[in-house]
Amino acid sequence: MPEPTHLLRVSARGLLRRRGVWLPSAVILGLLSFVLSLLYLGANDDPVGSTKDLPIALVNTDRGVQVAGKRIDLGARITAQITGAADLKEKVDWQQVDRRTADDLLARGKVFGALVIPDDFSASVAALAGPAQHTPHQPTMTVLTNPAAGSFGSSMATEINRKVVETTSAEVGEQLGQAAAAHRPAAGAAAQLTVADPVKAVIQEGHPLGQHSGLGLSAFFYALVLVLGGMLGANVIHMQVDTDLGYAASDKGPFRIVKPVQHATRVHHFLVCSALMVVLSMLTSALALAAAVGVIGIDASNLTLLWLFGTCATAAMGITALALLAVFGTPGPLVSMLVLIGLAVPSAGATIPIQALPDFYRFLATFEPFRQVVDGVRSILYFDARTDAGLGHAWTMVGIGFAASLALGLALTRLYDRRGLHRSTPHLAQPVPVG
User: Fold this and answer.
1) So what's the pLDDT on residue 432?
2) What DSSP state is assigned to residue 150?
3) Alpha carbon of 126 to those of 31, 129, 130, 195: distances in Å?
4) pLDDT per residue over 222-253, tens digit each?
5) What's the distance, Cα to Cα, between the start and end of the chain in Å?
6) pLDDT digits (tens, 9 = 90+) for 193-204
7) Neighbouring residues of 208: CB distance < 8 A, sequence distance ≥ 6
8) What mean pLDDT do residues 51-76 have?
9) Quick one: which of 75, 282, 293, 429 is 20 to 30 A from 317 by CA?
10) What is the crossing angle of helices 121-129 and 189-196, to 10°?
11) Domain map of the chain by residue range?
12) Where is each DUF3533 domain found (predicted)?
């Protein structure tokens, strides 16, 4: 088919010489790369140095012991030393609780780990310093992990607890040295080594995860699928509605279809896109669930609730993206990407815990939608869908985000319509050959 002769033609060289082609692209791509680099690397640059108030449970069940008429309560003394340590005072939020409360905190994802001083701790330490009548039991302190609350946060808590045990062992060993020498001056090398480093750390899972949970990261990736489904779905729906109204051409390979322009108000356009987003979110959530559970086989229960929450989260993300598209127009996809992905992923607390992020990201975490979706999915997947494990707050924030985005989109599209800023334009007369 010959090319239309009435169209204005431009060569590739002429097009490349246009400043309007180079300059906007250079500015947008340059700023995007710069901002994303700042956002992502700025959040993960120094998590240990940025750590503040990392929640860890501290359990002291030590009963103490009577030695030579004097009561020894090492558990209470060690607890006071741990909570008063200057190097950990601002980094760790030690929550002194009993074992039952600690287990509940672990089961709700409220702490990243726990350190437990057993009930026979003082007695086992005293036995090392006493006469060698039998083989003494080595003192232990139990370190409980909680990868369900966040694998990186759990690793940080475990490392902190291990160092606490090492410090405690060194201090106790120094105090035991002279006492043990008085009772057992001819102790062998093995016994001397035990006295020098008496306390052993026992690592246990505080809230076990299934084998197919991605070490606590499956919630993050599933939430990412939901957020991307909403953001990308909004762009697809917006484009399809524009194509059907004749606002945009539809290119399918070498073929281009341009429908006659049909006028629709901005409000009606936004409402139609929003309705499609809500309905199609049911489908996308179901298919995401089918792929994750049915095909891949991730550990998941409460499947109906997971589908329902996924539907609502996807719809809320999609309505947010549609509102930004309606407000900003062509730059809308970039703005929605920055809001829903660029700013949201580093502040979600899904990989690096919120307590290990710089202050700017902690501020973002209070309202960025991705974090709320991650908390909701994590509660459903790992914490038996307990509302006090983050699901209740996630429902609230998803509802607020949905309502706020819908209100924003309706308010501004109505304003644009009232000012006559319609999207449809009259057809321009095409030049015809003369003669």
Assistant:
1) 47
2) -
3) 65, 5, 6, 11
4) 999 999 999 999 999 999 999 999 888 888 88
5) 23
6) 566 778 999 999
7) none
8) 91
9) 293
10) 140
11) 48-205, 214-418
12) 27-398
Whether residue 423 contacts residue 412, with contact meaning beta carbons closer than 8 Å, is answered with no
Tokens of 220: 């993050």
- CA-CA distances (angstroms) from residue 311 to 45, 402, 410, 427? 34, 12, 22, 40
Kind of pairing between the strands at 65-67 and 70-72: antiparallel
- Least Cα distance to 91 among 49, 154, 147 occurs for 49
Contact between 233 and 313 (Cβ < 8 Å): no
Structure tokens at 238: 């917006």
In order of 68, 124, 408, the CA distances from 201 in angstroms are 28, 14, 54
Phi and psi torsions of 116, nearest 5°:
-115, 125
> Per 3-state DSSP, what percentage of the chain is helix, strand, and coil (rounded to 5)?
60, 10, 30
Q: What residues form DSSP beta bridges with 94?
A: 56
Give the distance, in angstroms, between the CA of residue 223 and the centroid of all CA atoms in the same chain: 8
On whether the 48-205 domain is CATH 3.40.1710.10, my answer is yes
Largest CA distance in the chain: 122
CA pair distance 70, 64, nearest whole angstrom: 10
DSSP-derived 3-state class of residue 383: coil
Q: Which ranges of 51-114 would DSSP assign to H, the alpha helix?
A: 74-84, 99-107
DSSP element (H, E) containing 54: strand 54-60
CA 252, CA 375: separation in Å to the nearest integer? 40
Helices 151-183 + 121-129 axis angle, to 10: 40
Contact 250, 341 (CB under 8 A): no
Residue linked to tokens 């035991």: 176
Residue 429 pLDDT level (bands cut at 50, 70, 90): very low
CA 218 – CA 381 distance, rounded (Å): 8
Q: How far is CA 225 from CA 238, 288, 363, in A?
A: 19, 7, 24
Residue-wise DSSP of 218-284: HHHHHHHHHHHHHHHHHHHHHHHHHHHHTSS-EEETTEEE-PPP----HHHHHHHHHHHHHHHHHHH
Between CA 334 and CA 379 the distance in angstroms is 31
Task: Give the whole-angstrom CA distance, residue 26 versus residue 37.
Answer: 16
Host H or E run for residue 201: strand 200-205
At residue 62, what is the residue type?
D
